[in-house]
Amino acid sequence: MEEYSLSLIITQGITIFILIFLIIYLLKQRRIIKLAKRFEKFSLISTKDKEKSIFDFIFDFVLQMIHGLARILSKSVSFKKYGSRYEKFISFEDKNRISGMDYVAIKFIMAFAFILLNVLSAMFQVMNLSFISLLITFCIGFFLPDCYLQIVFQKKRKKVEDDLLKAIIMMNNSFKSGRNIMQAVAIVKDELDGPISDEFKKIYLDMTYGLSMEVVFDRFYNRVKLEDAKYITSSLTLLNKTGGNIVKVFGTIEKSFFDKKKLKQEMQSLTSASIFVFRTLCILPFLFILVIYFLNPSYFEPVFSTSIGHILLILTVLLYVLYIIVIRKVLEVDI
Asked: What is the DSSP letter of 51?
């Protein structure tokens, strides 16, 4: 009992300390804003803004916290290297506002926010907190932004893959009219929109900095992870080293991409029914569990309260994951 009361006092003390820290930080920010307003009339350029809502203040506060934590984390070489992995998620327009370290800072803020929610929940429910539960909560909060970024990245990757043929056609037409590679890339980035335009803006910027064709398009491949991009990189590298007719080479690439896209659309139409059945079978177990839980909430209690139930739960999850992997491999067709 004494041990339980001690842990409760510790959690309450940590929560109070965090709340005091947030209040002091908010008061400090309020003082800075008041000082800025006092000196505003002495400045040469007026800095009057529209009245901000409470949500704008919260957003600015969170943004400053992210940037501040990112600056602290960037002092570590390991974190800086880890943050470079998130550069591919940054669009060309946001390149000067956001860095990869900001995403790492968001991950840490999310992790500590989840821990704080867990602590508050345990305090209100008068429950004990274990190190394992805190560790699991931290991991969920830390890796949750990665799930969101991967979903966004897959959508962007699909859009780039769909629009890459348009970019190749425009580049080939530019070469036919006597333009060089840099001019062809500039036309693509200006004429197209969406993720493909964003990627070609990055390509154009890399070329402006004087990077070689091999490095520029290799970086493009590393960002999008598409085999088609690797094919373009290999072709341009070979042309750059051995020479050749760029119009003829890009004409071949255009024809190859067109045939591949046509074949992929045919394969999608043929396998659409199988994919629908697969997705339905993946959802059905969860629907059955939900229905049984509403009919009899205590039905699954032995699964979570006994050691045999834990073993069966782990085996079920493993078999379910294995089923998804195997069926996806069977349905996946490489073109």
From this structure: P
Q: Is residue 309 within 8 Å of residue 303, measured between CB atoms?
A: yes
Chain-centroid distance of CA 59 in Å reads: 20
Neighbour count for residue 188 (Cβ, 10 Å): 24
If one counts every other C-beta atom within 10 angstroms of the C-beta of residue 257, the result is 20
Sorting pLDDT into bands at 50, 70 and 90, what band is 187? very high
Q: What is the mean pLDDT of residues 32-39?
A: 70
> pLDDT per residue over 65-86, tens digit each?
888 888 888 888 888 888 888 8
Q: What is the pLDDT of residues 215-269, one digit of tens each?
A: 888 888 888 888 888 888 888 777 777 777 788 888 888 888 888 888 888 887 7
User: What are the Cα distances from residue 59, in Å, to 17, 62, 83?
Assistant: 23, 5, 22
Per-residue pLDDT at 113 exceeds 50:
yes
DSSP designation for 194? S
Q: End-to-end distance of the chain based on CA atoms, in angstroms?
A: 65
Distance of alpha carbon 114 from its chain centroid, rounded? 19
Tell me which amino acid residue 322 is. L
Cα separation of 6 and 10, whole Å? Answer: 6
C-alpha pair distances (Å), 323 with each of 273, 285, 333: 18, 12, 18
**What is the C-alpha separation between 194 and 211, in angstroms, rounded?**
24
CB distance 254 to 241 below 8 Å: no
Tokens, residue 86: 């998130």
Chain CA centroid to CA 278, Å = 26
201: Cα within 13 Å, side-chain hemisphere: 15
Query: Alpha-carbon distance 172 to 255, whole Å?
Result: 11
Q: Are 90 and 98 in contact (CB under 8 A)?
A: yes
By three-state DSSP, how is residue 113 classified? helix
> Which residue do the tokens 């805190």 mark?
134
Provide the whole-model pTM. 0.66
